Amino acid sequence: MNGHPTAGVPILRLGDVLVSGLLNELDDKSALAFTEELTETIVASGARGVLIDISRLELVDSFVARMLMDLSTTARLLGARVIVAGMRPPVAITLVELGIELAGVETALSAEQGLTALGWHKGVPPRERAEP
Question: Which residue ranges form the domains of the chain, and what is each CATH number?
Fold first, then answer.
């Protein structure tokens, strides 16, 4: 892979929440570059929450599982809450069968549920929902 290794993994900012996703073609080098870029973006943006959508992943191996655990721990140390969303049932079953617990990783069934848990609701940022 030439150039910027995370070029296929955009990190979007929605207020104080970062949103990203992992692609099925994620290799070890790209995973490490993504982790580094995301942690730098957390610090630079002052993000308080991160949503990582893994709905496109058809399998999660022990390396990706460890990356998600380490990323969650690192983000917490930087003051951000991480939610991993969109895990497919076969991925969850495989993780259980392999004895991988994803310790410390908060999950949500969908990106929408993950964003809601981070304080977002269907197109209405939290600050605009407050009653006068």
Answer: 11-117 (3.30.750.24)
